[in-house]
Amino acid sequence: MIPQPSSRDQTHLLRLPNWLGDLILSVPAVRLYQSWLNGRASLVVAGPASLAPLAPILLPGLEYVSVPRWPMAMAADWKKRNVSAAVAFPNSLRVALEILPVSYRAGFTRNLRNGLLTEHRPRRTSPYGFVHVSDQYLGLLEDLGLPGGSRDLPPPPSLPKPSQAPANPCLAVFPGAAYGPAKRWDPACFAAVIRDLVKEYSWEPILMGGPGDAESCQAVAEAYRSPIRDLSGKTSALDLAHWIAHAHFVLCHDSGPMHLAAFLRRPGVAIFGSTEPAWTGPLGNTVTVARHKVSCSPCFLKVCPLDRRCMTRLSPEEVLTACRHRLSQK
Length: 330
Ligand code: SF4
Description:
The protein is 33% helix and 17% strand. The protein is α/β, with parallel strands linked by helices. It folds into two domains: 11-143, Glycogen Phosphorylase B (Rossmann fold); 170-328, Glycogen Phosphorylase B (Rossmann fold), CATH 3.40.50.2000.
């Protein structure tokens, strides 16, 4: 069980997930931990440096420590902060090594690393289907002695409008998926949906994503066959959050931007294929999932060994219907 803090000088540490989407799915659990501590000890969160700029938006008021590549490099830092308990959400060996200098170390059960933790618990499962990742983080804390919690998101932060944002309402489109090509919908389908949405709602479409998404954005721009702004690779993670916060609609895959849109309560549609919405679906109720269920889904593969039918059988009409339905519920 997570030890009760014995003095305010102590620090508890939550090691956050490494991916933006998973980090957002862990926010309810982090808030539960914060409320359980109730100021009896300090709480710090740690994660990759790439996500540090978003921490003030996602977890306001908590100190975020960027972890270096070498997992043992944090030992002196944990000692200086008097970290007495650490709970890790990632289930990797590397993260178990990161928190090794802390006297109480807990996380999910995983064979190779169990000996490095002082306490481990299996991920929650259900005979009736998937347990949502957000509930798995909450479940881990509950299994370690905290009260149960719900996956409610905090109220969305108010973010300034990007200076380059158009005066017209904008449609933010994220055609990339860092996870792998199995998750990416056809560029021509994206272009068809953008065309119809622009015609119906007079939005200004903007292609967005990180540097790794430039190729996907370029492919959609070519299929669109009209001028379209492409900001892929030209915005920081923080800028992206500001753009999403001011987008009138977000069209994306099961990806970090989908979770960011849900966190910021923006309406949108997220395309799912090889992955499972019951497992990693968006929190809240502003983002609708569009999916053409096929018998091999979910496979969770990065590259499809078949014919990508989970993507190719999802038509632009189905996605448009999902968009219109989402907008009718605004
Ligand atoms: S195996 Fe099936 S679910 Fe997996 S990527 Fe291919 S078509 Fe999609």
